[in-house]
Amino acid sequence: MNNGSMKRERTIWEKTVQVPSHNSAGRSTIKRFILLGCEDHAPYGPTDKTACLFLDLLCRGLTQSRSSITPIGELIEYVTFRICVWRVKEEEYPTEEEWEESDGVLIPGSFSAAYDEEPWIIRLKQVIRTHIMLPRRKTLGVCFGHQIMAHAVEGGLAVKCPAGHQAGPHTLHLTPTGQRLLRQKNTVDLLYTHGDMIESLPPMAISLGGNKAVPIQAAAYFATPTEAHAYYQEAAPTAGVDNTTIIQPHAITFQAHPEYTANQSLGIDQTFCSILTALGDRGVVPDSVLEKARQDANDNFLSLERTSLDMIVAVGQAFGWY
User: Fold this and answer.
1) CA quadruple 292, 277, 85, 181: dihedral, nearest 10
2) If you average pLDDT over residues 30-35, what whole number do you get?
3) CA nearest 207: which of 228, 191, 189, 226?
4) In terms of DSSP H, where are the helices of the chain?
């Protein structure tokens, strides 16, 4: 891993993964990602730590996605994931050329709220509309990223969670659309730490599932409301009908934090558990709930790790990252 090589004062993190080649020619490729860092402070930040978690998540997802592939002879592929960090609280954004060169965008969590009227949040919502939604740029949003993607577009709304702060493993009940896109059956358990949620989605987005406390825990974004409706209609299988479509979302967002399980020390011990401590210090979550969240996360780490990787594999394959 590159310990922070600099490009015009932007931190770049990268890692190369060796995997079986899935075609007849072994090769080396670079996948370039823009990370719009939205939190500079611990325990979720700083942004470099966040970038490392997403880098591990992307690399491990690729390895898992190729684990069932039978190598063609001795051919292998070297894939380098490169994440360039942009600190949007400081109004840092890529140039037009850097946007065009990227393979994907990552919008992670933040202690801020998508409905706040701070200048950097207003600017970020504008950038989402002009540089993600309009060009249909492939984007993964997590927690705050999930919320602000919806709140940036007319018809979407992020609000405080009426059920209060959510912390620990929770169950995502998938819609038929969610089951199809994420390649899972019925329910998925993931890790959560959040106090806000999406109340409504813009018309070009579809809910992938939720639960009673948080009805929209995951979403997919399409080019138009018509495309979103077509994908939704095709998600319910019809006997004798091939529902395969070339329509694919350009953005997928999760209220959960799949990156927490990408690295147990950095993601669980130094981030998730530290956030739980901060929530306890602020008095927004009872100590008994926080202790149960810690215990459940540790006791069920392997299954949470597996489902988190399943999520990123589904996203990576839908976006052509894997």
Assistant:
1) 20
2) 98
3) 228
4) 47-65, 96-101, 119-127, 144-151, 176-182, 225-235, 273-282, 287-299, 301-319
